[in-house]
């Protein structure tokens, strides 16, 4: 890593959430960023936000980052490869096999192209939601193939590191299968569940708790973008949806005859498989580590939560995570604090000594 | 409400999470609570936690709260109605139509029974997870029927208010349909999705983000309890799962032929229906109000988040919600703070003045 350097003279094509965020992050590190977009008004907005400068005659970018919707990624990458014959080109689309295959079919110069995919985003898109730190600490996949040299790929990895992200190498097929599982199918499932609420009894929604809110949060995402993502990764998504559908059929059949022999077992098996699956998701900082939770009652007034966290800090304990529970109709909050198990007992004692009500503590 | 009084001489049957939490809450308000359980060791544990005293000869409870698994709720309620002919009896099972029908079939005295259901719980059960404030601010359904008088139902409502919960009246069928929609089906969907992860590529899980974590969180719940809940509310659950299955089939068919006419439209419709549904979930405090979000970069060291919240408190702004984003591999955090829209601009200005990096702000 001794020869790591900032990417220089970067051209970004597409000024949406990702393009603008990359521009902001690189510009903040002193890189000369050119921001381009098929829409002049979108481009001007991103330039106004400080994500780069307008294109000019004679621009000779060393690196081009294509940040356009998946549907047009391959054609724009091909255009940029042709227009800038000395430049390295990457893209950030959520699917990787289809664009590579399209580029290969077009006869594009794959020796100068390497697709990537930052695992970062927001439910809201556009330059207006962009932020220079969008990628900090996030995985960013390099979708490797055999036509680009190790040295050239290194320049793209440098850009990823400069933006604070964590590079992960996966080939295009493995990338697409992976994101189908951890991103695309969860999106579909969340949307299908949320869709059931669109017809539901209003009284039912009064009973909504944190569980429902969590399961449906990503259902707020942009349909136009997701139609493209799902369409471009359809085979991998269907490969996960089909067994999920089969499991769902088994649960429906069991619930149609809950007293029949085997029905309870079928339902229990589905729930137990869910336990097994959720336990495999790594925790914060990419570790599989489990934390202890401490639940503290906090008045819903300015400064109370701050006082709690100040006192946690004074106790020398680092919170791994913090969750405020919603309390419909009440002016009180519950703060669920995650700490390393070794710190749990000491922190509970310290907080109780300072007069806090500990509503629960468990590993 | 002038004649509201604390419930007196309460007998709790079942010392799990709900029974122990009710006992803790009532005992804290000076109620004489008797804690009973078919398991003497479970009962002693709840008594040790302070959730009540051991049963004694001559106990004459005015109110009995049955907190046992759904499968045995009706038979225990019937036993208690018979054993204490002057007592009012309630239960807290997650399903309400089946126990009422069973009791009616047994010829139980329904003039002294009213089922209820607190919308509170944790992924972890047992007395060890119990807390006196478990119900604070939560909806608690009174599942009304015509055999119990208004006056008697009032005593149960008083207990609910004493525990800090928000009483909501729904008849048993409407309750069961409502919880199928907002609780039971989300549990099934979350478990089915999480089950897919149990076979997934380990590399895929490295790419897991907050979206996957949210959708699968409740998949950690206890299968044994959920088998009973789903079995007891099977018809209402299936009524929601079936159209969800049909929607899923349409998405699978569309993804099987993503370029066919109508496929993109079918996928977009499913995603848009999800948008509509999620927008119907009420926000914190039962309001439909939308908040503005401000995202602030926070070093992952003790005291930093506390300092941020202290300064928010000093600015006189009340946080409506706070979310810490996980940053796998990085020692940095992003705090997403929800505030009323009127406070957004002022808070951003105050925080920037104090040197905080605002990574984003949006309504």
TrEMBL record, chains A, B:
Its EC number is 1.3.1.12. Pathway: Amino-acid biosynthesis; L-tyrosine biosynthesis; (4-hydroxyphenyl)pyruvate from prephenate (NAD(+) route): step 1/1. Residues 8-285 form the Prephenate/arogenate dehydrogenase domain. Keywords: Amino-acid biosynthesis, Aromatic amino acid biosynthesis, NAD, Oxidoreductase, Tyrosine biosynthesis. PROSITE patterns: ACT, PDH_ADH. It catalyses: prephenate + NAD(+) = 3-(4-hydroxyphenyl)pyruvate + CO2 + NADH. Transmembrane segments: none annotated. GO terms for molecular function: NAD+ binding; prephenate dehydrogenase (NAD+) activity; prephenate dehydrogenase (NADP+) activity. InterPro entries: 6-PGluconate_DH-like_C_sf (IPR008927), ACT-like_dom_sf (IPR045865), ACT_dom (IPR002912), NAD(P)-bd_dom_sf (IPR036291), PDH_C (IPR046825), PDH_N (IPR046826), Preph/Arog_dehydrog (IPR050812), Prephen_DH (IPR003099). Residues 293-363 form the ACT domain. One of its GO terms (biological process) is tyrosine biosynthetic process. PANTHER family: PREPHENATE DEHYDROGENASE (PTHR21363), PREPHENATE DEHYDROGENASE [NADP(+)] (PTHR21363:SF0). Belongs to the prephenate/arogenate dehydrogenase family. This is Prephenate dehydrogenase. It comes from Diaminobutyricimonas aerilata.
């Amino acid at each position: 890593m001794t020869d790591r350097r900032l990417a220089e003279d970067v051209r970004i094509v597409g000024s949406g959430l990702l393009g603008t965020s990359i521009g902001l992050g690189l510009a903040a590190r002193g890189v000369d960023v050119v921001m381009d977009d098929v829409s002049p008004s979108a481009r001007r907005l991103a330039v106004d936000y400080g994500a780069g400068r307008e294109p000019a005659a004679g621009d000779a970018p060393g690196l081009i980052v294509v940040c356009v919707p998946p549907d047009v990624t391959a054609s724009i990458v091909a255009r940029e490869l042709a227009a800038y014959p000395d430049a390295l080109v990457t893209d950030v689309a959520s699917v990787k096999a289809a664009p590579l295959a399209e580029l290969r079919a077009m006869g594009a110069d794959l020796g100068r192209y390497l697709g990537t995919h930052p695992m970062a985003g927001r439910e809201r898109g556009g330059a207006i939601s962009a932020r220079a730190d969008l990628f900090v600490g996030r995985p960013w996949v390099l979708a490797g193939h055999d036509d680009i040299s190790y040295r050239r790929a290194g320049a793209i990895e440098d850009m990823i590191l400069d933006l604070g992200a964590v590079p992960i190498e996966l080939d295009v097929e493995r990338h697409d299968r992976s994101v189908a599982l951890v991103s695309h199918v969860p999106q579909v499932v969340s949307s299908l569940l949320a869709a059931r609420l669109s017809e539901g009894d209003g009284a039912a929604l009064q009973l909504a708790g944190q569980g429902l809110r969590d399961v449906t949060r990503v259902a707020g995402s942009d349909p136009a973008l997701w139609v493209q993502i799902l369409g471009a990764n359809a085979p991998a998504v269907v490969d996960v949806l089909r067994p999920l559908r089969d499991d769902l059929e088994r649960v429906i059949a069991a619930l149609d005859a809950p007293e029949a022999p085997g029905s309870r077992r079928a339902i229990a098996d589905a729930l137990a498989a869910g336990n097994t699956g959720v336990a495999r998701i790594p925790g914060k900082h990419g570790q599989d580590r489990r934390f202890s939770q401490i639940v503290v009652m906090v008045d819903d007034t300015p400064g109370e939560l701050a006082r709690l966290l100040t006192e946690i800090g004074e106790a020398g304990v680092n919170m791994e995570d913090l969750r405020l529970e919603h309390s419909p109709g009440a002016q009180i909050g519950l703060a669920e604090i995650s700490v390393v198990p070794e710190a749990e007992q000491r922190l509970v004692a310290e907080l109780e000594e300072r007069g806090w009500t500990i509503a629960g503590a468990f590993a």
